[in-house]
Request: fold
Amino acid sequence: MTNAQDMVRLNLDLSPKLNEILEELANKIGGSKSDVLRQAITLMQIMVIAKEQTNKLGIAEADQLIATEIIMPSQTSPKTHSLENLIETFGAWEDDRTTEDIIKDIYDSRTISNSDYIL
Reply:
């Protein structure tokens, strides 16, 4: 174990429910809340490494059948463009143009006149 003077102290805000779960887990493993959090960080590290190596992490039953597969959200999943989020939230307007068509129309309609550059 690391020397006490080498440890980093953290303050952690938890909801009463999470604190109750943390205390319950500490009692079940016969350790402290800090022990539970250290083990949780280690498990999370194992999950991240497995995901980086495109492996899967699961919980096996006694007969080695996977009972539960642990899936982490993908960081590389395509993110919806904010304009698409806006359309999903408020609905499309009267015309049936795609988001790309609307953006193209906006850019194509921009003009620059000499009056824009008067000093």
Q: What stands out?
A: The chain has a mean pLDDT of 75. The helical segments are 16-29, 33-52, 82-90, 99-109. The chain is about 45% helix and 10% strand.
